[in-house]
Structure formats: structure tokens, C-alpha cells
Amino acid sequence: MTDVLEGAHIAGCRIESVAGRGGMGIVYRATQLSLGRPVALKLIAPEHAADSDFRERFQRESRMAAAIDHPNVIPVYEAGEEDGRLYIVMRWVEGTDLHKELRAHGRVEHERAAAIINQVAGALDAAHTAGLVHRDVKPANVLLSGDHAYLADFGLTRLASAETNVTTGGHFLGTVDYMAPEQFKPGPSDARADVYALGCVLYAALTGRPPFIRETVPQTMLAHLHEPPPVAIGAGPEFNRVLARALAKNPADRFPSAGDFGRATLAAAQGQSVTEEERSVARGAAAPTIRRDPGVWAAPDPDVPDSAHDTSPLRTYRARKRPRLLLLGAATVLATGAIAVAAIPGGGDEIPPPGSPVSDAQAERLARQFASAYSNEDAAKISRLLTSDAQRVFPTDRQRGRAEVVDVYREQFAESPQSEFVLEGLEAEGGAVGRASARYRTGATTGTMTWDVIIERGKPRITMILAVPDV
């Protein structure tokens, strides 16, 4: 996006200087000519402004954001379109942001951190009550003016997609270091994703770094999805208990509202307990949702021999017949270390009753069945494993629905055969969400694969497949 020249007039404002840049556009320090007051003028990137659906949602959700009257929400003065450029005019806040403060000082004193989080939590409660989900809560969006905190950019990140956590271009919404596990999956997320993100912000404020920072984006995503919340060294047991709940993988296990989390954080800083009753305040699109993945149950794969179900640890499984790397496709994708994600049902020897936990054997078996079908380049068998609305998602690519997904596999299988596909050290763990993971090897390419397995409508299904090539 090209910078607007200093002194230019846009939306009744005179541009003074560039204040910041982000994925949605550029923020300028400007002067509102009618009142002579300083304002923050955000110009939306042209690629978003060119989308008619985006423009409509921008106008609608900007009005919703402007209607939020809360002392910790940056007030929106005006939003609209001028000469094909979408803009939003907001209060200018003199001060800094939490990201800059952490870079300058490393971490924040405990009581100050709790006060900041509680203020941001109040802002989130106000937004959630209005039906807005922020989806990009991070230190850079927490503006600080002395002891007063503001949450910025309401309504903007939410606009990038009305129905999903992935844009039409395949990019995830939000900042990976502060994203909730459900935001890496297809489908909507609700107010509880903001609670998780605010938990990440608290962890960063107390320690100086996000909770799941890793060397690569794929590794960070896997950590959010699978690793338990790390202990915030030096924060004490009270803060760590609060963090463990805010950073729960299952949204239902988190605080029901951001305000509840904020009050618990204040209590932790003061060594007290919270006496107020917890409650959810989210309404409309921000209200808690139940993720569903309807589909069909497939019988066990007859091509997988009984010997393949050995439960001994650190075993190796070889899927032969013109093997090909699961979901990774072109060499350019391998080179960039992209993550592949798919929503796929599986099979088992019996149909378990509704609500049953996934067994170790079921999690392992489903991983082997899909690997076998893929390694044999059998698109028809893959089709039988897929739900009607199965999805396959890359950071730069997405397919929705069985036919579209299978077409991609057929294209991959039409390419020249690759080396033997091998799973090494396959391990599985049952539970409400079963998990199988293994190292994979095909030719000179190696990496890690993880399968999440759930019982849904009484049937075991693979709900998530992650493939992370070694760099």
C-alpha cells in the first residue's frame, strides 16, 4: 500500500505522519479540520477495499464498533469511503502500546499487568455484548496512556471473513503468537477466542514473551493446538492458575467472559479470591458456538493388516504402493514449511456410543487408514473417508467439500510417484480428543504429522491433520 503524502486531505483530515502499519492498512496521525483535533486515520489496504462484500461489512461493523461506549475502547468518530479508499477515523491516543513497553522493559510489574488486563477485559466484554469478536488481541493493539489502557482495532480483523478464521486467500486471521487453537481450524470462533488471546497477552506481560513462541509459524501453531500452557516463571501460583484456565485448549474450559478473566487476574495480583458469580455476556455472533463436523462413518480399511495395529511404542509403519507425502503436494509448499489442515472422518471396528472418549487404538487406526489410502493413491477410498463438507486448508490454499478436496488429491496422484511413505515412532493417546503423532519420511523429506481424533455423533473421526516438514 502506497503511503499518502504528508499534508494530503482525506475524509476531512489533514495527514501529519505515519503512525503504524498492519495487515489491514496504514494508520496516520492526522488533524480533523472541522474541530482542529488530532485523530488516528486508518486507510484500509486496496486489496480489501476492492472487495464489495468487504466494503459492506466494513460499513456495518464500523457502525457497530462506533456504538461501543466504553472508557477502554478507542472511540470511532467516522468511517466511510472516499475516492475508492476505505477509512476509519478514531481518537488519537498519546502514549505507547504494550508491545513497545515490553520491548523497552522486558516485562510489566505484576499489579500493573493485572490492571492493564482488567481494563482490556472490560473493553472486550463491551464488544462481546454488542456481538463483536476482536480476533486480534495482542500487545500492539493495547494502547497505553499513563495507567489507562485502550483496546484498538475493533471490528477490523473480524471483517476479513464473516464465516471463518481463514481468509479467502487462505491466510489465518490474527497474529499467530496470540491466536486461540480454534482459530487455526475452519469455521467461526466466538468471544472465548478473545479470552485465550488476552491470556497470551497476560503471559507476555508477566514474562516478556508469548507463551508458545517457537522458531517457525507451523511449530507455533502446533504448540497452541497441543502443548499445555507453560508456567510463567516468577509469576507465582495464583497467576499461573488463572493463566492455565484462560489458555485452556477447549473454549468451554476457559473463563466464560473476558470480564471474569480480568477480575481473576486482579485477584491474583492482590492474593485474593473472586466472589462475583461468573457469566457469559457475549451476544449475537460473539456468543459461544458449538463446532460440528457432520459426515459419514467409514468402515475399517481392509488394506491395513492386523500386524499394523501393534501397540508397542516407537514403531515404524510403512505404507507402500507408489507412496506420496500426505497433503503436502508441490515441492514449493515443502520448501516453505507450510502446514496442511483437513477435516476428515475415520473408521473403527465398532460404532462407539455418543460421548465416548477416543481410545488409543482408534486414534492410531485412523491415522494409519488415511495414510494407507493416500499412499496407495486411491482417491476413491479417500472420498469414502471424507465428510460431505470436509475441508483441506493450507496457509495459501483452501478447498471445501468432498468433491473439491478429492479433485486436489487426484491432481497430486497424477504426478510422478515418489519414494516410500514411512511413519516412524507412531504414538497415540486417547481421550475426549484423541491424538496420534509420528515422524514421517518420504525420500529425502522428513517432518512431523499429528492427527486429532474426536467422537462425534457416536463415530470416531479425524478432525485435524497437521503436517510440518523439517526446515
TrEMBL record:
Keyword 4Fe-4S assigned: no
EC number: 2.7.11.1
Top-level taxonomic group: Bacteria
GO molecular function terms attached to this record: ATP binding; protein serine/threonine kinase activity
Region span, Disordered: 292-316
Transmembrane segments: 325-344
A UniProt-annotated Pfam family: Pkinase
Enzyme class: transferase
Domain Protein kinase: 13-266
Transmembrane is among the record's keywords: yes
PROSITE patterns for this protein: PROTEIN_KINASE_DOM, PROTEIN_KINASE_ST
Protein keywords: ATP-binding, Kinase, Membrane, Nucleotide-binding, Serine/threonine-protein kinase, Transferase, Transmembrane, Transmembrane helix
UniProt cross-references to PANTHER family, sorted A to Z: MITOGEN-ACTIVATED PROTEIN KINASE KINASE KINASE 20-RELATED, SERINE_THREONINE-PROTEIN KINASE NEKL-3
The name this protein goes by in its record: non-specific serine/threonine protein kinase
Organism (species): Solirubrobacter phytolaccae
Lineage, uppermost ranks: Bacteria, Bacillati, Actinomycetota, Thermoleophilia, Solirubrobacterales
